[in-house]
Design a protein that fits this description.
761 residues; wza like fold; 6 domains; five-stranded mixed beta sheet
C-alpha cells in the first residue's frame, strides 16, 4: 500500500525524469493533471518550495479530522472508474467536406463573401434571370441598376436591398433571390488543436465544424475556453459543454471569412466516479462546485447516497493527495482531482429500489422490512396511480426472477408478499401512467385492462385486484353532470352484461373489462357567430341545433347586415383544405427542384408557390350556400361543434383579383359586367387565362364566364369577386403534371381572398 505522499513524489519524479526504481505510477491519475497543475509542480521543485519525501519512507502525513489519506487499493474509488476525458471524441466523426449541401436552406444571417454567386429571378412585367458574382471589390453588377456593395452584409440584408432597388426601378416586378456556388471560408485555427493552421472551410460551418478540420481539440486543450476572433477584433467565447451537456447551440456561431479560432489550454480536470450516470474526467472552470460536475455526469444514479460524497485534492504544499469526506453539493472543486459519489447500499445489504410516484425514491434497507406491506406503510406517495404497481423480485438463492402486480387499494394483493434483496418496486404517476419496468412486466400489465367509455373519450387503464368504478371517475376528473348514472359493464371473457348505477359498481379485476357510461340525452356543441348581429359571441347549443336556433340567440340582425353574403366555416373542412395545401406545396417544391436541375423555366411554379403562401388559414373552411335567415332551409341546416358564422356588412363593392394590371375593389354600378370590371382594373396581364375567368358570388358559389361571345357577359352583383387565373404553360411536362395542384391552389387561394374581402368590408 502506497500513501499519496509517496504517490505525489512518484508523479513529480516521473514528470521531471527523476529515476526511481521499484516504484509504479498510476497513469490514469497522471492524465488528469492539467498543464497548469504540471507547471505548478515544476515551479515548486525549481524554487525549492517543495521538499520531496524519501521514497522509502511511507509515513502518513497528519491532517485535520475531515481530511483522510486515500489508498490506491481502495475498492470504492476504483469501482466504475473511467479514464476517458469527456467530450474530446466529439470531433472524430464530424464531416469536413468543403461543398455546401445544395438542398439546405440558406440562413438569413449568412454573411456574403468574395466569389459568392447570386441567382436573381425577375417575374411579372419583366421576366429575366441573372447570375451575379461578387467581384474582388465586394460588389455585384446588377444590369440596369448598377454596382451594389454586398460583402459583409447578411443574406437577409442583401435580399432586402435588392428588393428595394427593384421596387423603386420597376412596376409590377417580383424578385426571387438565391445563392449558388458559395465560396469556402478561409479560417485560421490555432492553440491546442491537432493541426494548427489556415483552412478553407465549408461556408455553413460553425465553430465546432471548423475545429474538426484541424483534427479537433487535443486532450490538454480546453473545451470550455474557445475564442472566436472576428476581423473587426470582436471576440466571442464559446464553452463546448453548453452544447454537449445543455444542448445550447447559441454560442456555436457560423464562421466568417478571416475568422481566427483560438483554443486555450485546460486549467483543471476532475474525475467523478461512483454512483453517477456518466462517470468520466471533466474539465472544470474556476468557481465550479460539486453540483456542477454531478450535472456534467448526468446526475446521480438511483443507488447514490447524496450525503456521502468525497473529494480528493492535490495538495502541493503538503506533497500529498488528501481526501475530504461528507462534502456538500456546494463544495468548491479548486485543486480537486477525484470526486467519489458512494452508493447508498453495500454488498452485504443491497436493499430494495423504490422509484416512481413516491416522496423519497431510492434504496430502502431490507433489514427494516419483513414484507411488502411493511415497506408500503412507510412510504409517502405523490399523485400515485393506485390500481396497479409492479415489484420485480430477484431470488438469488434459487436463481428465480418473478413479477408481482398489486394494487394499493386492495391490501390482499400485497400484504403477504416476501421481499428479496436487490429488487425493484415501481409506482406509476397518475399523470403519466408510464411503467419503468422490463418488457416481461409490461406484457403482464397489458393483460389486465379496464376500458372506460365516457362521452367521446376512451380511457385504457391497467387494473389489478378489487376496484370501484366511481373511484376511476373521481381520479380522472370526469364530468358526470350531464351523464346518466346508469352504466353498462361488459366482460367479454364471461360474456356477461351488467347495467347498474356506476356508483354501486364494484368488481374484481379480470382481463378486458369494458364500462360505458350512458350518453347524455343531448350532447352539447360550441358555435361562434360574429359580425352584424346584436349579440355576437360563442354559444353552447344542443347537438341537434340548426342555424335558425343560433340566429334566435344572437338577436336581431343590424341594418348593415349583408344577409346574402353570410359566411359559414367548418373546422373539419378547414383541416382538409390545409392538408390539401400542404400536399400541393410538397409537389411544387419537388417540381421546382426538377425544373432547376433540368434548366427549365420555373416561373409558373414560383407563381403557384407564392399563391400558396398567400392563403390565410383563418379564411379557409367555407361552406358555400344561402344561409340567410329568411331562406327556406335556414331551419334545416345542422350546426357542428366548432362552426363559425360571420355576418358581413352590406357590400356595394366589386373585387377584382388575379392576373390583372391593378387588382382592386371599386363601387358597384348598375349593369356592370365582367369585362367592364376587368377594364376598370387595367385589363388583363400577359399571363392571364381569359378562358377561365369566373365569379365568386357573395354566398360562396361560383359562376363561370360565358364562353359564347353571342351570349354576352353576365352582369355582376354587389359583393361579387371576379377571378382572373394565371395561364399555365401546358406544353411543359412538369407543369402538365401539376394541373391538379394548380386547380387546388387556385380555388383555395381565390376563395380565401374572396372571404377576406367580404368580411373586411
Amino acid at each position: 500500500m502506497i500513501s499519496y505522499k509517496n504517490f505525489l513524489f512518484l508523479t513529480l519524479s516521473f514528470l521531471f525524469s527523476v529515476s526511481l526504481s521499484a516504484q509504479t505510477v498510476d497513469q490514469s491519475l497522471l492524465s488528469q493533471l492539467s498543464p497548469e497543475q504540471i507547471e505548478a509542480a515544476r515551479k515548486a521543485v525549481e524554487n525549492d518550495n517543495l521538499t520531496l519525501p524519501d521514497p522509502v519512507n511511507t509515513e502518513t502525513i497528519e491532517i485535520e479530522e475531515t481530511l483522510v489519506d486515500i489508498d490506491l487499493e481502495n475498492e470504492d474509488l476504483e469501482n466504475e472508474v473511467t479514464d476517458r476525458k469527456y467530450g474530446y471524441d466529439f470531433f472524430s466523426k464530424m464531416p469536413t467536406s468543403l461543398s455546401a449541401a445544395g438542398d439546405l436552406p440558406l440562413p438569413n444571417d449568412y454573411k456574403i463573401s468574395l466569389r459568392d454567386q447570386f441567382r436573381v429571378i425577375l417575374s411579372g412585367s419583366k421576366d429575366q434571370i441573372f447570375n451575379l458574382s461578387v467581384n474582388l471589390d465586394g460588389t455585384v453588377l446588377f444590369p440596369e441598376l448598377g454596382s451594389i456593395y454586398v460583402v459583409g452584409l447578411t443574406f437577409g440584408e442583401v435580399k432586402e436591398k435588392f428588393s428595394n432597388l427593384v421596387n423603386q426601378s420597376y412596376i409590377g416586378v417580383n424578385i426571387d433571390i438565391s445563392l449558388q456556388n458559395l465560396s469556402a471560408k478561409k479560417v485560421t485555427i490555432v492553440g491546442a488543436v491537432g493541426t494548427p493552421g489556415t483552412y478553407l472551410i465549408n461556408p455553413f460551418s460553425t465553430i465546432t465544424g471548423a475545429l474538426a478540420y484541424s483534427g479537433g481539440i487535443t486532450e490538454i486543450g480546453s473545451l470550455r475556453d474557445i475564442k472566436l476572433i472576428r476581423n473587426n477584433g470582436m471576440v466571442t467565447s464559446f464553452d463546448l459543454y453548453d452544447l454537449l451537456i445543455r444542448g445550447d447551440r447559441s454560442k456555436d456561431l457560423t464562421i466568417e471569412a478571416g475568422d481566427t479560432i483560438l483554443v486555450g489550454a485546460a486549467s483543471q480536470f476532475v474525475k467523478i466516479v461512483g454512483a453517477v450516470n456518466r462517470p468520466a474526467i471533466y474539465e472544470i472552470l474556476k468557481n465550479e462546485k460539486v453540483s456542477d460536475i454531478v450535472n456534467f455526469a448526468l446526475g446521480f444514479t438511483q443507488t447514490a447516497n447524496k450525503s456521502n460524497i468525497s473529494i480528493s485534492y492535490l495538495d502541493l504544499n503538503k506533497a500529498s493527495v488528501v481526501t475530504k469526506t461528507k462534502v456538500g453539493l456546494d463544495q468548491s472543486l479548486k485543486d480537486a482531482l477525484v470526486v467519489n459519489v458512494f452508493n447508498y447500499v453495500n454488498q452485504d445489504n443491497l436493499g430494495i429500489s423504490v422509484s416512481g410516484a413516491v416522496e423519497e425514491p431510492g434504496f430502502y434497507d431490507l433489514e427494516k422490512y419483513n414484507n411488502l406491506n411493511d415497506l408500503i406503510e412507510d412510504l409517502n406517495f405523490i399523485d400515485v396511480y393506485p390500481w396497479l404497481a409492479v415489484l420485480e423480485q430477484f431470488d438469488d438463492a434459487n436463481l428465480v426472477k418473478s413479477i408481482v402486480l398489486f394494487s394499493l387499494n386492495d391490501k390482499n394483493t400485497y400484504e403477504s408478499v416476501e421481499l428479496f434483496s436487490n429488487s425493484r418496486l415501481y409506482f406509476a404517476d397518475i399523470n403519466e401512467m408510464l411503467f419503468d419496468v422490463e418488457e416481461m412486466a409490461l406484457n403482464l400489465i397489458d393483460e389486465y385492462s379496464l376500458t372506460l367509455n365516457h362521452k367521446n373519450e376512451t380511457f385504457e387503464l391497467p387494473v389489478i385486484g378489487k376496484y370501484k368504478v366511481s373511484s376511476f371517475v373521481d381520479m380522472l376528473g370526469l364530468d358526470m353532470s350531464d351523464v346518466d348514472n346508469e352504466a353498462t359493464y361488459i366482460s367479454p371473457l364471461d360474456s356477461n352484461i351488467i347495467v347498474d348505477d356506476y356508483k354501486k359498481m364494484n368488481f374484481s379485476a379480470k382481463k378486458y373489462h369494458n364500462i360505458s357510461f350512458r350518453s347524455p340525452v343531448n350532447d352539447l356543441i360550441s358555435v361562434n357567430i360574429s359580425g352584424a348581429v346584436s349579440y355576437p359571441g360563442t354559444y353552447t347549443l344542443k347537438s341537434d341545433s340548426t342555424l335558425n336556433d343560433l340566429y334566435k340567440l344572437a338577436g336581431d340582425f343590424k341594418k348593415e347586415a349583408f344577409l346574402n353574403g353570410i359566411i359559414l366555416t367548418r373546422e373539419i373542412v378547414r383541416e382538409r383544405q390545409i392538408k390539401a395545401i400542404e400536399t400541393s406545396e410538397a409537389a411544387l417544391n419537388k417540381s421546382l427542384l426538377i425544373a432547376v436541375q433540368q434548366g427549365d423555366d420555373f416561373g409558373d411554379i414560383s407563381s403557384l408557390s407564392a399563391l400558396a403562401e398567400s392563403i390565410e388559414p383563418e379564411n379557409l373552411g367555407r361552406i358555400a350556400g344561402n344561409f340567410s335567415p329568411i331562406s327556406s332551409n335556414s331551419d334545416e341546416i345542422a350546426l357542428f361543434d366548432g362552426d363559425s358564422i360571420i355576418i358581413p356588412k352590406s357590400s356595394n363593392v366589386i373585387n377584382i383579383i388575379g392576373e390583372v394590371l391593378n387588382p382592386i375593389a371599386f363601387e358597384y354600378t348598375e349593369r356592370m359586367n365582367i369585362e367592364s370590371a376587368i377594364r376598370r382594373a387595367g385589363g388583363y396581364q400577359i399571363y392571364a387565362d381569359k378562358r377561365r375567368v369566373y365569379v365568386i358570388k357573395a354566398n360562396g358559389l361560383v359562376e363561370k364566364k360565358a364562353r359564347n361571345v353571342f351570349m354576352g357577359s353576365s352582369n355582376l352583383e354587389p359583393g361579387d369577386t371576379v377571378v382572373v387565373p394565371r395561364k399555365i404553360n401546358a406544353s411543359n411536362p412538369i407543369l402538365r403534371n401539376l394541373t391538379p395542384v394548380t386547380q387546388i391552389l387556385s380555388d383555395l387561394a381565390f376563395s380565401a381572398a374572396a372571404i377576406d374581402n367580404l368580411s373586411n368590408n
